[in-house]
Amino acid sequence: MADTYVYLIHEGDWDSDAYLGGRTDASPEGRDPAAPGAAADTNPDINADMDASFPEHKAFQQAVVDLGARVVGGAALQSSRHGGTVTPGAKGRLVEDAVYTDGPFTDTSEVITGFYLVETDDEDTARRVAALVPTGGHIEWRKVFPTGM
Predict the structure, then answer these.
(1) pLDDT per residue over 47-70, tens digit each?
(2) Which of 59, 72, 75, 80 has its CA 20 to 30 A from that of 132?
């Protein structure tokens, strides 16, 4: 039985807006701009830019297949300016008393810029996959808890 692992890509923030053809909103259903049905489908220039800019990710996906594993999900995350952090309020007032901060944690220069979900048959393969994920920083990998979702 295959287990699923998540690989979180930690590196310096990036200018995701530069790859969206002037769009700063999320693509349909929050998917990667290169995903089917996203803006890239209607603008071939975005597809060409993605392919030219991220060839190491295509090579990674093939390397996963070569190891006998399977990429089952993943996406690039937009720049940290499109999100933030939150400390929920006390029980019963989670939203009302929440403390929001724009951007990532202030004590780090790295953010999570993307992730992959990969199914593997064993932990050794999962470890090797982690070493192959393209990054300018480091990869955090963990086995996904089986919640049945």
Answers:
(1) 555 667 789 999 999 999 999 999
(2) 80
